[in-house]
Amino acid sequence: MSRSLSGERATATVESAHSQVGPPEPIFAARGEARMMDASEVAQLKAMMEWEGRRTAPPEGFPALPDMPAGRYTSAEYYALEVEHVFRKSWLFAGHLDEIPDPGCWMRWHNAGDPIVIVHGMDGVVRAFHNTCRHRGAPVVTEDRGKSSRLMCGYHNWTYKTDGSLVGVPERRDFPADFDLSCRGLLPVRCELFGKVIFVNFDMEAMPLIEWMGPIAREWEEFAFDRIRLAARHSFDLQCNWKVAMEANMEVYHVPFIHPNTVAPLVDSTRNLNTLYPNGHARMLAPPPRQTDREHVRAIDSPPGWQQIDTVGELGRTCTQSYTLFPNWVSPLSNYFVPPLLFWPTSLTTTRLELVTMALDWGDAPAPDLWTVPDASQPNGRQMSPIILEDTQFGEAIQHSMQGSAFRSVPLSYQEARIYSFHQNLDAMIGVDKVPEPLRVAPVIGPDWVWPNDPRRAQMEREPAT
Ligand code: FES
Ligand SMILES: [Fe+2]
Asked: Taking the domains of the chain in order of start, what are their residue ranges?
């Protein structure tokens, strides 16, 4: 694991690699100014969770969700559309600033197709480039991580500055006199930070990260993305479509049945409240069962030295809240951890699951790792934790079934609407006209059910608690 940023609180910056105009803008206000949810918003969300527990049918006006076509999980054509239009156009988690802490540090990244190098520039700006030499395509860096003030391709030693510009071509005399080095810099990939977390986007025309995140950017301020350190990052290969794996983490319907002793004591699945956000993101909020004091459970589970994220508000401390950051990030954020699970498609029927733990500080205690446990028999010395094993246990068999003749379609309940909304957004991002009609989902969840709209509030006010 790499070291942290020497204890100081870095000023997070936004910088698009393709636009070098003007100084970087700060995202985060000074510590102590994190915008917390106000008391009335917290009270309303708590009341809505109780209302969700009391209702005897889906909320008034909530659309019946048509079955989703089976082919969305088994069609090579649909998979190709996802890769081209979703993973090439979305903001994707790439890493943590702790992995490239100093100017000159760089790391390879290739979780979404093209090989990329992410560089902490000598000028302090973090940028991403295709790791493809502009001469004859050799990789410019060949190690996973490194540190150098220049990037030099090993094949013929073309040399680039950390801002991507080409500054050295051996035997320059043999190229034409008008051979313009300034047109031959490394090709950029969009790269922006949310606090210390690095995101990339292959689409040079994509909206800025902060706009893509929408209301989530404000809600995540209290989780101190500008101060959290990288504690653990491991990946595992799964034998199922990436959506099969990810959807196991996008509803709590399954919690009492496959997590009776792990998650169920912490999450009351009947009182969960899903909120759908623009761009396919979503939040699930659920209190602990009435007999569980969540703060007490966490205090027992968390060894001394693990520092709580002091700005986290009441809901993050007392409830489970899990966010989908479209397309492939799911994270239950709390006052102890920012632990995203990332689902990377490696083929139609295989997925790389990346398990990340970020936390504020852990003193002299071992670095926290929420999702993996030691296992000397595994290549990286780690195994998925019991909760992750529970969530992934059916993936391979589901995929096998899905490719058989008995799997026709997927009926989803109101409680699984986060999954349906995710699929609607997949089709929207691909462009509905490009999706073969038999594979489309009907866009029945309209904007009236997407933040900031929520017809459930009015219904709850008409039906006060008895
Ligand atoms: S391929 Fe990189 S210098 Fe020739
Ligand atoms: Fe689960």
From this structure: 38-91+215-462
| Whole-angstrom distance, CA of residue 127 vs CA of residue 118 | 6
Residues of the chain with pLDDT under 70: 1-35, 293-304, 464-466
Q: What is the pLDDT of residue 36?
A: 74
432 by DSSP, 3-state: which? helix
Contacts of 355 (CB under 8 A, 6+ apart): 232, 233, 234, 235, 236, 339, 341, 370, 371, 372, 384, 388
Closest protein CA for atom 4 of ligand 1: 156
Span from the CA of 10 to the centroid of ligand 2 (angstroms): 34
Preceding omega of 256 cis (within 30 degrees of 0): no
CATH topology of domain 38-91+215-462: Naphthalene 1,2-dioxygenase Alpha Subunit; Chain A, domain 1 (3.90.380)
Count, residues in the chain: 466
The encoded tokens of residue 394 equal: 């059916």
Determine which residue's CA is closest to atom 3 belonging to ligand 1: 156
Partners of 450 in the β-ladder: 276
Q: What radius of gyration, in Å, describes the C-alpha atoms of the chain?
A: 23
C-alpha distances in Å from residue 122, one per residue of 18, 126, 324: 17, 9, 34
Residue 147: strand pairing partners: 105
Number of Cβ within 10 Å of residue 204's Cβ equals 13
Quick one: tokens of 16? Answer: 């698009």
User: For helices 455-462 and 39-54, what crossing angle results, to 10°?
Assistant: 70
Coil/strand/helix, residue 261 = coil
Ligand 1: lining residues by beta carbon, under 6 Å:
133, 135-136, 138, 153, 155-156, 158
Q: What single DSSP character describes residue 50? A: H
Predicted local confidence at residue 67, as pLDDT: 98
> Do 348 and 358 form a contact (C-beta atoms < 8 A)?
no
Q: What is the pLDDT of residue 186?
A: 98
